[in-house]
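Hi support team,

I'm filing this because I wasn't sure whether my run with beta-alanine finished correctly. The job status page said complete, but I'd like someone to confirm that the output block is well-formed before I use it downstream. Pasting the exact inputs I used:
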Amino acid sequence: MNAPIIRSLDALDALTDAWRAAGQRIGVVPTMGALHEGHLSLVQRAKAECDRVIVTLFVNPRQFNNPEDFARYPRTEQADAAILAPYGVDALFVPTGDEVYPPGHATTVSVAGVSGPLEGAHRPGHFDGVATVVTILFNMTRAERAYFGEKDWQQLQVVRRLVADLHLPIRIVPCPSVRAGDGLALSSRNQRLSAKGRAQAAALPGVLFDLAGRLERGATPAPALAEARARLADLGFAPVEYLELRDGDTLGDPLPGRPARLLVAAWLEGVRLIDNIPVTLPQTATRSSLGAA
Ligand SMILES: Nc1ncnc2c1ncn2[C@@H]1O[C@H](COP(=O)(O)OP(=O)(O)OP(=O)(O)O)[C@@H](O)[C@H]1O
Ligand SMILES: CC(C)(CO)[C@@H](O)C(=O)[O-]
Ligand code: BAL
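And here is everything the job wrote out:
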């Protein structure tokens, strides 16, 4: 059965007030729509852990640094409602822009540090937009748990920092990246690739997994990363915005003995693809060997 589509906060409050009065745990899955199996994995996890699940669908203008990207972002509300039908979602919250940002809205939530590099450097203002809308959506839904995909690794770390720093009463649940059979992480923006581009795109996770293997076997990060960037360029990715080895939590320099992450953003056919995977660095890695990463 299709979940009820709720567009106003008043209507959402009427539902959630009743759920809370009945002592039910509410989970929220924030999305921008154009739903695929990646989103559905978050929904399934939320259903397994919560009594009530709200999926939010809002293409947040404040997190788009590029107006063309905002204009071209897929908007497929009817298809999204249909794809969710078998999953027993309790509400599909599709607020209007004015509902989220009422006239006169003047507040921005900004998370320092972890928002700075990588996505933050290449999409100025992006994480302020994400942190602001996520805070608003948490407050609107008053959910106890929120589900986020590891595909957007830096976003996940920004949201964790935000929740910890503001003592927000919500638990962030990270969910593993869902990949297509050829390894490409599912993403709404993938729909914009041609069939040829879509086939080429699988090289991105290929290079990432290869590189992780080399680093885990003791390759020195700086030259291995440079080589992998050049390989991506040879494979037709242009530009390769970043391919970096970072600390998994802070996104700062990788440190010996701490979980590290490889993160990439690269363009193909005018589509910006991102991905990331964990790397277990050898015990012998030193700060100076990693510092050059
Ligand atoms: N392949 C995936 N596996 C797991 N979670 C995912 C995947 N793709 C998206 N998500 C998660 O779904 C949530 C909503 O993401 P969003 O609506 O931006 O979809 P998207 O596919 O990431 O789109 P985009 O093209 O903007 O990257 C986020 O928490 C995101 O990390
Ligand atoms: C978390 C989110 C829904 C906020 O707009 C968005 O950044 C996304 O879809 O990952
Ligand atoms: N998937 C993260 C949201 C964005 O790219 O704007």
